[in-house]
Amino acid sequence: MKSFLDTVDVNNLTSSEQIIYQYFKDHLNNIVYLSLSDICKELYVSNATVIRFSQKLGFKGFNELKFQLKNELNLTNKSTNAWDTIPHRTSILKDFIDNIDDKIIEQICSEIKNHKSIYIYGRNMSSLPAKYLQSMLNTMDIPCIYIDWIDFLSALSKSFPDNAVLFIFTNYGDKSIYEPIVKQCHERHVKIIWISSTDLDSSLLSSNDIYISTHEAKLETPPLLTKLTSFLLVQFIIEYLRHNIDKQGA
């Protein structure tokens, strides 16, 4: 049976990736039953190497690649009900969990704890995780201000307190919209924490910013980006903060 692996240009793979590729080809019928750690132990490679290999083939990570192979081997349910999308969404969430950098979560939480002026921006679908973060921070007695109008954010960017923290939840990070706002923020030494569903234009980022791409899954009908991964990221932040607040109170 033909697989998407047959379309891969092996010449673009590193020597380690070629070993992984050949292993996948040789064990096509069994690979969907193996975990990431199983494969790494078998090939004596790191988790990061297999994840990079998966991403080079166009997937978010190993779990989404494995989901694609399951589909090709007809191991997933082919009915047309709404539950068909759940395994794919789950694979993307698993890849996000595998790839998240604990140090970045720790750094974000440190910024929250060490700054008195915290602002959170998000509109449309991005308002959902933004409002959730604001609600949870307020519940933990960490004051913050939620912004849902881009014009209001633009006006505030000229008067933010120095060294404030600004969370920006966005789908696409449109450069034409955010560039003047970012310029004002950087001039006032505002630390921006970007949580974007898709990759950002690097010109929007300063070396002082924190940036996480959540690679949200896209829904074709209606055409929008889900926010499952953004909610998961917010939950990681909240759990880390809560754990450290509990430790300090003990």
UniProtKB/TrEMBL annotation:
Domain annotation HTH rpiR-type: ranges: 1-76
Gene Ontology molecular function: any one: DNA binding
Family annotation (InterPro entries): Homeodomain-like_sf (IPR009057), HTH_RpiR (IPR000281), RpiR-like (IPR047640), RpiR-like_SIS (IPR035472), SIS_dom_sf (IPR046348), WH-like_DNA-bd_sf (IPR036388)
GO biological process: carbohydrate derivative metabolic process
Superkingdom assignment: Bacteria
Name under which the protein is recorded: MurR/RpiR family transcriptional regulator
Top-level taxonomy: Bacteria, Bacillati, Bacillota, Erysipelotrichia, Erysipelotrichales
